[in-house]
């Protein structure tokens, strides 16, 4: 079988890894389908890319921000034209269904148009000086070369969340795509190049986290790191980056809860739970991983939810009738299976699924049946640890206060949702749920690009993507202009 070979993008040139080695990108729906060979890069490739980015920074930082933004605007228009092809490429390399990969490309388009507008809005402040005939202001400056490390579950949207705000702010970038899904990053960056991005402004280095990610984190000429991935790896990234005082933006795990109150619109709550738990095969940081059910509706909700979960059509995401695609790779299947086992050992019950699908049309892919685990209590591991697969736990509660307490009892805090018709409870939940994103009468997934995206506790370290990313990718400079023509000493000459 023949398949294309892709190279790293360094200083505007497509180059193989210095090692000459490659990693195969396989279709998770059918492992005999090879999407392409991508470079297996190492520290020496990272060094070349960082040097190219450093060189390009000298001129890119001087391009007026509205002009930088025009390139993003053109890239957004090109992405619209290429949406269908890029969605198909993404389904082939990542597995999620076409409707969702179209959504992923759409999120990059939305981000392009949103951030392009920011090119004329990189506002600073002006403020009175304490001295006469002196002017004071603050100006946003780019930070320099930034390193971007992105995950496989949103292979175009998440790179766009990082690349576009970094670029409009005047930074140059080295991006390491996830090993499972490099093609979508290539498609995105090729689009930026076609839109007029100068050589060296964005560089791609493909390879594993240890061989490429860590050298990028440790490189002395990289001024900031933006990482999306697991909390375990994020913690290592932050510790390594601390050695060179790099700011790090971390977006990590979740254990998101949907709370359903007795007074909720049950049909709506069921639709939301099904989409939140099994959309993207459960492989979103925002996925619904716990459904908290008030006693009065628990039995009916459980029966109807289980019935619908069992009916979901699992298969190749390129088939438009399929609702749930494969998991991205065998190790994700192992994690799902492991958590089912742990849940059973702790006394929970599998109400639907609970196993990999390996027969017939599933034989060549990595499929896991949509899984509902019932009888879960808040202390079980399945109720506290991130699974990142199509596995959801049902937990029952008596009172609203108890529901909030259970929702908040995990170490993560990305997304949370409450279904109720009671406005007082809705506002209490908006205040008290420990989550960076909170939904009322909507599922835990579906954040829009122009709001802050990120979480509290072990989900993040305080930074936000979306509305907030430019704060990370710029640094403030305070500027004073004295037009008095004499030495004026602050805190001294103007003192009483
Ligand atoms: C992620 O789960 O990694 O809010 C990102 C959402 C999407 C982004 C998810 N817009 O579900």
What does the model show?
With 496 residues, the chain is an alpha/beta fold. The protein has two domains: 8-252 and 460-478, 3-Layer(aba) Sandwich (Aldehyde Dehydrogenase, Chain A, domain 1); 256-440, Aldehyde Dehydrogenase, Chain A, domain 2, CATH 3.40.309.10. 37% of the residues lie in helices and 23% in strands. It is built from 13 helices and 25 strands. The protein has helices at 43-60, 65-94, 98-118, 157-168, 182-194, 209-218, 231-242, 266-278, 295-311, 330-345, 400-407, 423-432, 469-473; strands at 8-10, 13-15, 22-27, 30-39, 125-128, 134-142, 145-149, 172-176, 202-204, 222-228, 248-251, 256-260, 288-294, 349-352, 356-357, 367-368, 371-374, 391-397, 412-413, 415-419, 437-440, 452-453, 456-457, 465-466, 474-482. The strands form eight sheets. A seven-stranded mixed beta sheet has the order 14-17-18-13-12-20-21, sandwiched between helices. The chain has a five-stranded parallel beta sheet with strand order 9-8-7-10-11, sandwiched between helices. Helix 1 crosses helix 6. The protein is globular, with a radius of gyration of 24 Å. 2-aminohexanedioic acid is lined by residues 107, 153-154, 284-286, 445-447. Residues 107, 153-154, 284-286, 445-447 line the site of 2-aminohexanedioic acid.
Task: Provide a compact summary of the structure.
With 496 residues, this protein is an alpha/beta fold. It is 37% helix and 23% strand.
SSE layout and pairings?
Elements (H helix, E strand, L loop, with lengths): L7 E3 L2 E3 L6 E6 L2 E10 L3 H18 L4 H30 L3 H21 L6 E4 L5 E9 L2 E5 L7 H12 L3 E5 L5 H13 L7 E3 L4 H10 L3 E7 L2 H12 L5 E4 L4 E5 L5 H13 L9 E7 H17 L18 H16 L3 E4 L3 E2 L9 E2 L2 E4 L16 E7 L2 H8 L4 E2 L1 E5 L3 H10 L4 E4 L11 E2 L2 E2 L7 E2 L2 H5 E9 L14
Parallel strand pairs: 7-8, 7-10, 8-9, 10-11, 12-13, 12-20, 13-18, 17-18, 20-21
Antiparallel strand pairs: 1-2, 3-4, 5-6, 6-25, 14-17, 15-16, 19-23, 22-24
Helix pairs in contact: 1-6, 2-3, 2-5, 3-4, 8-9
